[in-house]
């Protein structure tokens, strides 16, 4: 049996797949811990696992951490280049600085066989490099392999320089970038969907992993009486500020239209909803999806993956961060229509909805993506990869000793 | 769209008016109404152009002012802060400089 130490950021979209894979590893008898920068509700942590926040080592940075977390709310207001700056220079790199002492401390006590470091949480990979511990990277979002028109040599150089400087701070003077594993990078989507035609051999696409069990109550009886096409709408867990504006547009577009909107949002944002809107703050999303005909979302990965696993066409309204990239992938794969949130017109919304519901090509394309997700292997494949990696790592160490 | 290469050298007010027309075409009249576009408007932040819109804007600039105006090439030579702080005024000056170097 092996010891796995996951190192995660304070963003649930990145933590979630590691909880799922960690749960599967625990079920097979391995030891698993998580190290994070912020406490996670105990209800999320798989039985037998432990989520550690090294408070003592993080204490000097508490104020800065809170400030950075607060800045993330600005995402929807920022332009693409500003987001890039906020992400790398304003978030990932300082978080790495703050986390390395604590991650290092926990690693000394736990003595992991493998550190599994999230792709934006460089502290895991840096610690692994410094302590010569085998390291795997996890990537929840399809990597941006194409880039866009804003990518420029000076911006690329800026990224490289920031990473080199960060490595220098920890006394790492190699020309290689050690913030990501060169041995194995587990990506939670399929190679086909990521549009990665010729991936490096250490990139391992396992598809989405299982969601958390969710037995939230729901008015299933009301849903069962619905006869019009059912459309699930979710903006994920972030982006609280723009909910009201977003749903106001949906109400304007779909009130009393021949569709039923099932929306995951706090009903209290409006005093009243149209009769064809079923609204609930938290919903049993995975159980609801098989009953739906289409999905409207912003491109957050949790909802996108659930939609694909049910072969549902999507209408995506990217708002910030990596949503634009994901939305383009969905559109390029023919599984949906992208409508930019900032330029959202109600007539376009209605026309796009009609198109994804009535033109079977979108559903068929989504079903093809589902097939690639399923054959990518999910939890079983991720566990197999990690077990083999740990086995190989232990063998190498025992040969050296 | 016809490629009308303007022979006459335009002053900055005229260039601004043309660019404003292009922006309206690219992002849509109803969104431009609330924007209050000025020469100080930031390209990425106030106008919130995404990459597809920038490419379309760039094509209009080329078609109007001449093929030698490589707007996207000019942008791609910028560093992050230059892009963040890019205003319409910078673009006007760039077009003026291309006209005078012709």
TrEMBL record, chain A:
PROSITE patterns for the chain: UDPGT
InterPro entries in UniProt: EryCIII-like_C, Glycosyltransferase_28, UDP_glucos_trans, UDP_glycos_trans_CS
GO molecular function, one term: UDP-glycosyltransferase activity
Biological process annotations from GO: antibiotic biosynthetic process
Residue stretches making up the Erythromycin biosynthesis protein CIII-like C-terminal domain: 263-376
One Pfam family named in its UniProt record: EryCIII-like_C
SUPFAM superfamilies in UniProt: UDP-Glycosyltransferase/glycogen phosphorylase
UniProt keyword terms in alphabetical order: Transferase
CDD domains: GT1_Gtf-like
Name the record gives this protein: Glycosyl transferase
Species name: Chitinophaga tropicalis
UniProtKB/TrEMBL annotation, chain B:
Matches recorded under InterPro entries: ACP-like_sf
Listed name of the protein: Acyl carrier protein
Origin species: Chitinophaga tropicalis
Classification lineage: Bacteria, Pseudomonadati, Bacteroidota, Chitinophagia, Chitinophagales
